[in-house]
Amino acid sequence: MEKGKITRAQIEAALGKIKGTLSLEEAGRDADIIIEAAPENLELKKKLFKELDEICPPSSILATNTSSFSITEISTATRRPDKVIGMHFASPVPEMRRVETIRGLETSDATAEIVE
């Protein structure tokens, strides 16, 4: 806002859409997309994706922010490998206005299009 790139009303509108929770079930119950940003630990990510797969609606896209693990490998923890994709945000996020999308072997065209 101080740089004149966003108004106070835009900030308040964005903040009004954010709801915090410590419950994975609450976060995933009605999610259209989940973007995971857990530490770079493959077993942790696979455990989280397995849990999300059980919690989220079947239509939910599960995205990982990994920069080093195979999207295909992470997707094996789910029953929806067609809806698993990588979304790696360049850092620092406010200055780097790009997101790298990475498909797994089974990521569907529809999932990739929605994320793009």
Tell me what the structure shows:
The protein is an alpha/beta fold. It has one domain (20-115): Rossmann fold, CATH 3.40.50.720. The protein contains 5 helices and 4 strands, in the order ααβαβαββα. The chain has helices spanning 8-16, 24-28, 42-55, 71-75, 109-115, and strands at residues 33-36, 61-64, 84-89, 99-103. The protein has a 4-stranded mixed β-sheet with strand order 1-2-3-4, sandwiched between helices. β1 (33-36), α3 (42-55) and β2 form a beta-alpha-beta unit. The chain is globular, with a radius of gyration of 15 Å. 19% of the residues are buried.
Fraction in helix: 25-40%
- Low-confidence blocks of residues: none
Largest sheet: 4 strands, mixed
| Assembly context of the chains | single chain
Principal-axis shape: globular
Averaged pLDDT: 93
Task: Give me the count of strands.
Answer: 4
CATH H-level superfamily? NAD(P)-binding Rossmann-like Domain
CATH architecture: 3-Layer(aba) Sandwich
Give me the CATH fold name: Rossmann fold
Helix-strand category: alpha/beta
Order of helices and strands: HHEHEHEEH
Gyration radius (Cα, Å) is 15 Å
Number of domains: 1
- How many angstroms does the end-to-end distance come to? 26 Å
Q: Number of DSSP helices? A: 5
Question: In what order do the strands lie side by side in the largest sheet?
Answer: 1-2-3-4
Measured by DSSP, the beta-strand proportion falls in: 15-25%
**Tell me, what is the CATH class?**
Alpha Beta
